[in-house]
Design a protein that fits this description.
Strand content: 25-35%
CATH superfamily of the largest domain: Jelly Rolls
Shape: globular
Largest sheet: 4 strands, antiparallel
Structural class: alpha+beta
Number of helices: 9
Number of domains: 2
Oligomer: single chain
Length: 231
């Protein structure tokens, strides 16, 4: 990837959007593009934090391995989002594993050496990071509250309604960016519950499954489900 293209991609991130050109160029000088195959591991839990990352295309899954060998999905990171900032700035090591969900996933690695030097030297970078991470923390708190309060149908309905949609013959068609088992983990419900919800909603004419896409046939009903906090 050309340096100018890399710089332009970094400028689209909330962290760096307001940075002056000279500081953005400095961060870009220590960054690189990495291309990953599906299921390729980007880093493993416990490894030293070599930097933090931004997804340019595709998607990345953050997960932890339990002592009994099971995997606990923590986050699905789509294109345009970043991750592992806290690992670099405070922990020093990655607290989880990261792997690509799609073949050809591209991530930008913002390298630790150059970034941390700029972070120490230039207060403008620190202010930008604090502002961006504060917004991320706010969204994380909202997600935790939603997982604690909202019912499984409401969580699933809200997730679908937040996805980008295209209008096709009166139906809103959304692309599911992850496998259903991963989506269930993301929503903190068991896969069987997700499958039952899909079957029920299809039987009721609310949605229609089309492989990796889902057509929302009755958005008003889905909105009503999303507003409920109980079954």
């Amino acid at each position: 990837m050309a340096h100018a293209e890399l710089t332009a991609s970094l400028a689209e991130l909330p962290h760096f959007r307001a940075l002056p050109p000279d500081l953005l160029q400095r961060v870009a000088s220590g960054s690189r593009l990495r291309k990953l195959a599906a299921d390729e591991v980007l880093f493993r839990q416990g490894e030293p934090a070599s930097g933090f990352f931004a997804v340019r295309s595709g998607a990345v899954q953050l997960y932890r391995s339990t002592p009994d060998g099971r995997e606990q999905v923590l986050q699905h990171v789509p294109a345009g989002k970043s991750f592992a900032e806290a690992a670099l700035l405070t922990l020093g090591r990655f607290p989880a594993n990261a792997r690509a969900l799609e073949d050809g996933t591209e991530v930008i690695e913002i390298g630790a050496t150059v970034f941390l030097a700029a972070f120490r030297d230039d207060p403008r970078l620190g202010a930008a990071m604090v502002s961006s991470l504060s917004m991320w923390l706010h969204s994380l708190v909202e997600r935790i509250e939603e997982l604690q309060i909202a019912s499984a149908p409401a969580r699933f309905a809200r997730y679908l309604l937040r996805l980008p949609a295209k209008d096709e013959a009166g139906a809103l068609v959304v692309h599911l960016p992850m496998a259903k088992k991963d989506l269930a983990a993301h929503l903190a419900i068991v896969p069987e519950t997700l499958s039952r919800l899909l079957r029920r909603w299809q039987d009721q004419g609310i949605v229609e499954s089309r492989g990796k896409e889902l057509a929302i046939l009755d958005a008003r009903v889905l909105i009503a489900i999303a507003d409920r906090e109980t079954e």
